[in-house]
Design a protein that fits this description.
The protein has 238 residues and is α/β, with parallel strands linked by helices. The protein is built from seven helices and ten strands. It has two domains: 4-129, 3-Layer(aba) Sandwich (Cobalt-precorrin-4 Transmethylase, domain 1); 134-233, Tetrapyrrole methylase, C-terminal domain (Methyltransferase, Cobalt-precorrin-4 Transmethylase, Domain 2, 2-Layer Sandwich). The protein has helices at residues 20-28, 44-52, 68-87, 109-120, 134-142, 163-170, 185-194; strands at 4-9, 31-36, 58-62, 95-100, 125-129, 152-157, 174-179, 202-205, 213-216, 229-233. The strands form two sheets. Strands 3-2-4-1-5 form a five-stranded parallel sheet, with helices on both faces. Helix 2 (44-52) links the parallel strand 2 and strand 3. The radius of gyration is 19 Å and the shape is elongated. The chain binds S-adenosylmethionine (SAM).
Length: 238
């Protein structure tokens, strides 16, 4: 019997941004898995799905989420452990849904987990259901136009701030979105100022959550903010 592991994107935080498809996959799955860094506490994705469907039964999976090169070994090891625990679960299942914030194929715990599960049992089919990403919600809340005509788009991480970011921001016809840049916000703002993009930049912090903020970079005094923050620079050559 074919078994399927499905990465389900549940959006950035606002439960209303879950898709009908994500809901129907969750409703029809035998096992719902949600990553957390502490088994005693719900992770973000679990909180989102339970606010829409409180009756779902969720199995928490312990994950290491330290970002970047520093965390990759820990994240791989955690994914292997998670894969083992999913495959050795006493519960029989044909379809297991693993929920992630945003989209499951973009900077997501699902990719490592799918690799580990596929390595341990190649017969399991890996599928995914796309989710709305944080930058889309920031763009909507900021009320800006992200792309038009022949403009291009770059999605970078802000874990290291160097030439890549300066080059991306130096192209005035490119929209630039930065994930994972909260700890380096001060340096990102400096690069934005050098490239003439500070005035048109936006930041969304914890978008879709009760304490969320979406504001212009010019209105942002902080040099560091939390991990759940996304920067958006629309093109300036229009
Ligand atoms: C590990 S990545 C997860 C990305 C996710 N898979 C997606 O498709 O949006 C974490 C980064 O996503 C962004 N992010 C996710 N949820 C967010 C939210 N609610 N508010 C602001 N940024 C968010 C931040 O840039 C954060 O550093």
């Amino acid at each position: 019997m074919i078994r399927r592991l499905i990465g389900v994107g549940v959006g950035p935080g606002d439960p209303d941004l879950m898709t009908l498809k994500s809901l129907s996959v969750l409703r029809s799955s035998d096992l719902i898995l949600a990553p957390t860094t502490d088994l005693a506490e719900a992770g973000r994705a679990e909180t989102i799905i339970l606010s829409v469907c409180p009756d779902l039964s969720v199995t928490r999976i312990l994950f290491e989420m330290t970002p970047g090169g520093a965390g990759i070994q820990g994240r791989r090891a955690a994914a292997e452990r998670a894969a083992q625990s999913i495959l050795s679960t006493g519960q029989s299942w044909q379809s297991a849904a693993f929920v992630t914030i945003g989209d499951p194929n973009v900077f997501s715990t699902f990719s490592l987990l799918a690799e580990s599960v596929g390595g341990m049992d190649p017969e399991i089919e890996i599928e995914s259901v796309p989710g709305i990403m944080a930058f889309q919600d920031v763009v909507a809340k900021a009320g800006i136009k992200l792309l038009d005509e022949e403009e291009s788009f770059r999605l970078l991480t802000g874990l290291n701030v160097g030439n890549d970011l300066e080059m991306a921001l130096s192209d005035p016809s490119s929209a630039v979105v930065i994930y994972k840049g909260g700890a380096n916000l001060g340096r990102i703002k400096e690069t934005a100022a050098i490239t003439g993009r500070l005035e048109s930049g936006w930041i969304g912090i914890k978008v879709g959550m009760s304490d969320s903020e979406v504001k212009t970079l010019a209105d942002t005094d902080e040099d560091t903010v939390g991990y759940l923050s996304t920067l958006v620079f629309p093109p300036v050559a229009r």
